[in-house]
Amino acid sequence: MGLAGCATIHRQPFTETQQAEATIPGVPQARFWADAPGAARLMAPVYAGANGERSMLALSGGSDNGAYGAGLLNGWTKAGTRPEFAVVTGVSTGALIAPFAFLGPDQDATLEQLFTTISAKNIYRNRFPLAIPLSPSIASTKPLARMISEVMTDALIDRIAAEHARGRRLFVGTANLDAQRMVIWNMGAIAASKAPGRYGLFRQVLLASSAIPAFFPPVMIKAQANGREVSEMHVDGGTTAQILTLPDQAIVAGQLPSALNRLHLYMIVNNKLNGEFHLVRPRTVPIASQAISLNLRRSAGSTVALSYLYAKAHGVDFNLSFIDKDYPRSEKSLFDTEMMRTLFAYGRKLGETGTFWAKRPPDKDE
């Protein structure tokens, strides 16, 4: 009973109205709802590259499959064609990659270290079995929180603030469980703020975006509504969307913000988009695992397809990369170091060839 009590989250109830009014103290522009009418405008960068063109990089979720995206970025650098992105977005494992991709090629070594040297013990620690029923999750993510603090230093966050001042934008998605809505966090605005807790908040958001519900504990982020503290519950952004380009509402509305004209869109999906045959063992865990995998893959596929149609209608240069369906399926445990090294090398080799971008989503029979 004592062990279970130690893991319990305590917070005061609040209303939907208070949630709607809640802001982050000292950082009024810290975040916005993904389904808000002005979300696309808030994502538009000021920065423009040569000839007024802009590049946007969107990194998907995928757990340990993030090794693919990390390797691809390393190879892309070696190919010599990687642009400076005006906008970078990340969800789940893509959120952990995003700040380093945003800062540029000098962070490639950090990405390689993160996805080729760690194992499950660096990410989570299973709770004592008797404590699980009264705990917010099966595992604790204290190891992951510690790793994020070690690699995402104050100095790197200050560099992100400097790039934000240049007009570049970095966004990370989380899911607010109470509101049942996706939240887009303006990480550059957080970094550039003078709020005393900006460094801690920056790391908290990264941890929250990777917090798989029930398996990992939610991250409680403190906000204020009319002077009253509101303790918000945030989890993996992949719960609402596996990848973030423009908000769905903006895509459906069919309007492209003027600041995103002449846009090159690069989407890295840290997963397979095509269906693959796998004989499922008739047991609870394999059945649940396969069902969740199917749901996530379909979610990613829908967002990719919608983004493609939007890009085609508005003259956006569409580029997509994902793990090929013929890449061997891993039967190893989550965050297996050798598996991630192999996937990282696969992504890096593709990146070095310079031919890893598809100009349209795969057909279901491709």
From TrEMBL:
Transmembrane domains' residue ranges: none
Residue stretches in coiled coil: none
Keyword Lipid metabolism: yes
Motif (DGA/G): 236-238
Domain PNPLA: 57-252
PROSITE patterns per UniProt: PNPLA
Pfam family, one: Patatin
A biological process term (GO) from this entry: lipid catabolic process
Motif (GXSXG) on chain: 90-94
This protein's UniProt keywords: Hydrolase, Lipid degradation, Lipid metabolism
List of catalytic residues: 92 (nucleophile), 236 (proton acceptor)
Residues in the signal sequence: none
MF terms in GO: hydrolase activity
Full protein name: PNPLA domain-containing protein
